[in-house]
Amino acid sequence: MSCIDMPSDRGNSNGLALKDVNGEPRIRDLDLAIRLGFSDAHKIRNLIERHADALVALGVSATVAETSPKGGRPGKAHYLNRKQAIFITAKSETAEATEITIEIIERFDAYERGVTVQQFTIPQTLSEALRLAADQADTIEQQKAQIEAAKPVVEAFDRIANADGNVNMTLAAKALQVSPHWFMKWCDTNGWTYKRGNQRMAYQDKVNAGYLYMKTDTVERPDGSDKAVYQVFVTPKGLTKLAKLLGGSGGAPATLPLLRPNGLGGSSVHHAPAME
Asked: N or C: which end of the chain has fewer CB within 10 A?
């Protein structure tokens, strides 16, 4: 079994280091024991052996034979995956267990996102400290600018999401700042609505999701019989969803591609009608 340091953890002595074991990130048992505050790091292996069956249920057991640098008895190092490391951390019942559990989760999450874990370096000179302070100030200003730029869109979404009542398709199009004709065609093509005869109906999955609402009225025909008339309404939740799909606070371009109901531009997906 091959075992190498992860690139982001080489030279890291302050936190848990992930090891690449046959292409999978794992934590060495003794490293975990040290972070947990074991007076004798090797005691963690007794804990691991006691819970061997439970650990196997959480993933493949990865071990590496190792010899003592002092010529003692050969040992067996355990390399734990995320679930195994969290399990042993909980069973250790040490004061640091909660903190280390969070660290384990963050380490593995960073690996899965492909994020290199950055280590903080203490400035050694006044110029380095000033440079670090300036860099942090720049970062804060950039974040503030991004927040300010996003405010109009966020506020628009909040107004829509908190609006009282539902709106018909024409009013929904106006709220989204697009042509009603374009909007209805987009909804028909993207699996929100469909035509049954000369009436527009809502797909059941959009009704179930709380995006659309079907209103039914009864009108009297000239011959005295009743006729059911359906009308699609968009809920505040549906408007928020549509605003995001159509590019934020509105103004979707007429060139926005019209997708088929499966969202991939391929063959259509037949949804169950909202109402029969």
From this structure: C
Q: Return the closest-CA partner of residue 182 out of 246, 124, 234, 89.
A: 246
Query: Strand 18-21 vs strand 3-5: parallel, antiparallel, or unpaired?
Result: antiparallel
| Domains, the chain | 3-112 (3.10.260), 151-276 (no CATH)
CB 18 within 8 A of CB 110: no
Residues 73, 78, 81: CA angle, nearest 5 degrees: 175
Report CA-CA distances (Å) from 89 to 21, 36, 38.
20, 8, 11
